[in-house]
Amino acid sequence: MALDPSEQHLRHVEKDVLIPKIMREKARERCSEQVQDFTKCCKDSGVLMVVKCRKENSALKDCLTSYYKDPAFYEECKMEYLKEREEFRRTGIPTKKRLQKLPTSM
């Protein structure tokens, strides 16, 4: 059965696993300042990070949650996923392999 590259239907695993994975990655990029603050706090606090880094942890969770709950952000990530899936169905080459540089000389 040949799959239509431009077909828009999403399977359960795509909706519940793959698109949320893209959302997590993009949200972490967009909340990079909070991620850095929390990481620095954890490194500086050692064992006491649970107590000392509550403020940084709350700021990070608030930032990430704001993206997770944004329907426009979900749609953006969904379209990105569909574009990658369409390209894979056309070429048979996963995105990661397509983006790797080929050696220029042997």
Record keyword descriptors for this entry.
74% helix; copper; single chain; Cyt_c_biogenesis_Cmc1-like; 106 residues
Description of the structure:
With about 110 residues, the chain is mostly helical. It has one domain (about 15-90). It is about 75% helix and about 0% strand. Component of the MITRAC (mitochondrial translation regulation assembly intermediate of cytochrome c oxidase complex) complex, the core components of this complex being COA3/MITRAC12 and COX14. This is COX assembly mitochondrial protein homolog. It is found in: Mitochondrion.
Write the SSE topology.
Elements: H1 12-30, H2 32-45, H3 49-52, H4 54-68, H5 71-91, H6 95-99
GO molecular function: metal ion binding
Function: Component of the MITRAC (mitochondrial translation regulation assembly intermediate of cytochrome c oxidase complex) complex, that regulates cytochrome c oxidase assembly.
Subcellular location: Mitochondrion
What's the gist of this structure?
The protein is 74% helix and 0% strand.
**Average pLDDT, all residues:** 88
Count of individual helical segments: 6
> Cα distance, first to last residue?
39 Å
Supply the number of structural domains: 1
The radius of gyration computed from the alpha-carbon positions, rounded to a whole number of angstroms, is 19 Å
Model regions low in confidence, pLDDT < 50 over at least 5 residues: none
| Net shape | elongated
Approximate helicity band: over 70%
Largest sheet: none
Class based on secondary structure composition and strand pairing: mainly alpha
Strand segment count = 0
Bin the strand percentage.
Answer: under 5%
SSE ordering: HHHHHH
GO molecular function: metal ion binding
Pfam families: Cmc1 (PF08583)
Motif (Cx9C motif 2): 53-63
InterPro entries: Cyt_c_biogenesis_Cmc1-like
